[in-house]
């Protein structure tokens, strides 16, 4: 297959009026979505990295002084609703606005949400208003940008899973930078600065997408949009004549994968909850001497190298689209200039401190860093080496996230029953995030791809909304489970807490492997 010009892909793009310029073997339009989603995830994860630690930090240090249980309950409701509203947002886009307008409106609402949260020092109500705006804006944004990615590729294209994996790298690039910079600035300089910084980059994401809309041809337009005679454009929503029994079977498979994803994200989303509490209260974060110096160099590398990698992706995209979409390139370049300035400032500041204290939010960047470094390898694995069925990929994802919690359980064995604090080595959290990331790469981008491939096109937004509804359920359960961490540690042990979380995804993985053959048949040729 020609990396630069895949004939089937080019023909598919032409039918929808999409620019056929390629970047690294994929449509340039994919990378516009990449950067839009990157800045949205910067804003979401930058704020999420601060949410729990802000709530449980003492009032004297600018936090709200909540108990772990209180913070976990708010975390459960917030993250649950963030992933529930995409169900409504998907329907709104399918029936009324189209994907593009929904994305822009959602981005604007989230920008206002971050601005409101930055004002929490004046009145606590601004914080709650900001959370509500974030929930509503995400509902319009999240399912519809994922739908647009899927429509760039033919359903049976070998590049579709790879395209979603690249898109997923964009998601995690934004998450990485958001947690790295918003988390650092929030904990070191002031919580409201961290919340405000997240909003600035949400605004940049909205602007760069707005000025590049024409690159998508008719993808994402408002339903019923008319075109001039002779345009010879064919909406992907008008191509679907699949027999009803096949549609039914495929939707059953989608439903099974959605249920499986609940078990995965129930465990995975402990990152912003119980794992944050573990990092704050039970992990050795103050480093001195050689360990402090080594961390400074590692942290500097983790700061600079990912920014450099994503800057290279921007450069490659700019070469292809700057002539037609100069404002998109200009605004994205400005946002990257700010990122470089903040990254260099952070590194300089840390090297001039006598004692190194690792921020609580720093551990959350590990997931995104591993995604950025491993995503292309998984993309090539699925495309060229080994491409098992979706249920098998999901099973591996579930098993790997379970292994991550087994590692934490083992590392927690030295913590006495009922202990409120401890100084466990950072190594256990680092290893856990590594296994969680490899599991995520087996499940999450693959899940997005299968929802796109198996769903009727006219209901794509709705089905992506349902996919995120499964994540909503998982996030709610994750937060509620995290609220019992103090109770379980007091009455049993930290090891028991983590083993309970490990057991559930492992059981789900076994069931997927047992029913893999049946599920493959029900996909009717889509793999």
From TrEMBL:
<dbReference type="GO" id="GO:0015833">
    <property type="term" value="P:peptide transport"/>
</dbReference>
<feature type="transmembrane region" description="Helical">
    <location>
        <begin position="251"/>
        <end position="268"/>
    </location>
</feature>
<feature type="transmembrane region" description="Helical">
    <location>
        <begin position="294"/>
        <end position="315"/>
    </location>
</feature>
<keyword id="KW-1003">Cell membrane</keyword>
<feature type="transmembrane region" description="Helical">
    <location>
        <begin position="102"/>
        <end position="119"/>
    </location>
</feature>
<dbReference type="InterPro" id="IPR000109">
    <property type="entry name" value="POT_fam"/>
</dbReference>
<feature type="transmembrane region" description="Helical">
    <location>
        <begin position="425"/>
        <end position="447"/>
    </location>
</feature>
<feature type="domain" description="Major facilitator superfamily (MFS) profile">
    <location>
        <begin position="29"/>
        <end position="520"/>
    </location>
</feature>
<keyword id="KW-0813">Transport</keyword>
<dbReference type="InterPro" id="IPR050171">
    <property type="entry name" value="MFS_Transporters"/>
</dbReference>
<dbReference type="InterPro" id="IPR036259">
    <property type="entry name" value="MFS_trans_sf"/>
</dbReference>
<keyword id="KW-0571">Peptide transport</keyword>
<keyword id="KW-0812">Transmembrane</keyword>
<protein>
    <submittedName>
        <fullName>MFS transporter</fullName>
    </submittedName>
</protein>
<feature type="transmembrane region" description="Helical">
    <location>
        <begin position="162"/>
        <end position="186"/>
    </location>
</feature>
<feature type="transmembrane region" description="Helical">
    <location>
        <begin position="459"/>
        <end position="477"/>
    </location>
</feature>
<feature type="transmembrane region" description="Helical">
    <location>
        <begin position="192"/>
        <end position="212"/>
    </location>
</feature>
<feature type="transmembrane region" description="Helical">
    <location>
        <begin position="75"/>
        <end position="93"/>
    </location>
</feature>
<dbReference type="InterPro" id="IPR005279">
    <property type="entry name" value="Dipep/tripep_permease"/>
</dbReference>
<keyword id="KW-0653">Protein transport</keyword>
<feature type="transmembrane region" description="Helical">
    <location>
        <begin position="394"/>
        <end position="413"/>
    </location>
</feature>
<dbReference type="InterPro" id="IPR020846">
    <property type="entry name" value="MFS_dom"/>
</dbReference>
<feature type="transmembrane region" description="Helical">
    <location>
        <begin position="360"/>
        <end position="382"/>
    </location>
</feature>
<dbReference type="GO" id="GO:1904680">
    <property type="term" value="F:peptide transmembrane transporter activity"/>
</dbReference>
<keyword id="KW-0472">Membrane</keyword>
<keyword id="KW-1133">Transmembrane helix</keyword>
<feature type="transmembrane region" description="Helical">
    <location>
        <begin position="125"/>
        <end position="141"/>
    </location>
</feature>
<feature type="transmembrane region" description="Helical">
    <location>
        <begin position="45"/>
        <end position="63"/>
    </location>
</feature>
<dbReference type="Pfam" id="PF00854">
    <property type="entry name" value="PTR2"/>
</dbReference>
<feature type="transmembrane region" description="Helical">
    <location>
        <begin position="497"/>
        <end position="515"/>
    </location>
</feature>
<dbReference type="GO" id="GO:0005886">
    <property type="term" value="C:plasma membrane"/>
</dbReference>
<feature type="transmembrane region" description="Helical">
    <location>
        <begin position="327"/>
        <end position="348"/>
    </location>
</feature>
């Amino acid at each position: 297959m020609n990396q630069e010009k895949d004939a089937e892909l080019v023909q598919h793009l032409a039918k929808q009026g999409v620019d056929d310029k390629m970047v690294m073997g994929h449509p340039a339009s994919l990378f516009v979505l990449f950067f839009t989603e990157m800045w949205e995830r910067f804003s979401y994860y930058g704020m999420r990295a601060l949410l729990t630690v802000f709530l449980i930090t003492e009032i004297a240090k600018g936090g709200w002084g909540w108990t772990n249980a209180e913070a976990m309950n708010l975390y459960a409701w917030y993250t649950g609703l963030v992933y529930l509203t995409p169900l409504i947002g998907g329907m709104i886009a399918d029936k009324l606005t189209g994907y593009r307008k929904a994305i822009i409106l959602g981005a604007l609402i989230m920008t206002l949400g971050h601005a409101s949260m930055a004002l929490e020092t004046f009145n606590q109500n601004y914080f709650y208003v900001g959370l509500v705006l974030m929930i509503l804006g995400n509902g319009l944004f999240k399912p519809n940008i994922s739908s647009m990615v899927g429509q760039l590729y033919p359903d049976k294209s070998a590049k579709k899973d790879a395209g979603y994996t690249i898109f997923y790298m964009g998601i995690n690039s934004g998450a990485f930078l958001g947690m790295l910079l918003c988390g650092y600035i929030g904990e070191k300089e002031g919580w409201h600065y961290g919340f405000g910084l997240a909003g600035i980059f949400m605004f940049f994401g909205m602007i760069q997408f707005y000025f590049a809309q024409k690159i998508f041809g008719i993808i994402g337009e408002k339903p019923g949009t008319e075109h001039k005679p002779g345009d010879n454009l064919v909406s992907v929503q008008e191509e679907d004549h699949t027999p009803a029994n096949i549609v039914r079977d495929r939707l059953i498979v989608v439903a099974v994968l959605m249920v499986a994803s609940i078990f995965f994200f129930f465990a995975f989303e402990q990152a912003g909850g119980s794992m944050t509490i573990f990092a704050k209260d039970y992990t050795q974060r103050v480093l001195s001497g050689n360990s402090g110096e080594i961390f400074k160099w590692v942290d500097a590398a983790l700061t600079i190298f990912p920014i450099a990698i994503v800057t290279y992706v921007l450069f490659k995209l700019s070469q292809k689209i700057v002539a037609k979409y100069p404002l998109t390139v200009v605004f994205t370049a400005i946002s990257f200039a700010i990122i470089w300035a903040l990254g260099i400032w952070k590194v300089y500041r840390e090297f001039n401190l006598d004692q190194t204290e690792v921020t609580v939010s720093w551990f959350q960047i590990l997931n995104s860093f591993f995604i950025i470094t491993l995503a292309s390898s998984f993309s090539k694995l699925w495309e060229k080496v080994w491409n098992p069925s979706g249920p098998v990929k999901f099973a591996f994802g579930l098993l790997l996230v379970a292994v991550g919690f087994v590692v934490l359980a083992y590392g927690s064995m030295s913590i006495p029953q009922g202990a409120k604090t401890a100084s466990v080595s950072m190594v256990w959290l680092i290893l856990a995030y590594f296994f969680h990331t490899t599991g995520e790469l087996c499940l999450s981008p693959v899940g997005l791809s299968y929802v796109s491939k198996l769903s009727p096109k006219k209901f794509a937004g709705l089905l992506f909304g349902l996919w995120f509804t499964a994540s909503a359920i998982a996030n709610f359960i994750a937060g509620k489970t995290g609220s019992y961490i103090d109770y379980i540690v007091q009455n049993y042990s930290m090891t028991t807490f983590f083993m309970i979380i490990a057991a559930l995804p492992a059981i789900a993985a076994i069931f997927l492997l047992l029913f893999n053959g049946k599920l493959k048949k029900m996909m009717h040729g889509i793999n």
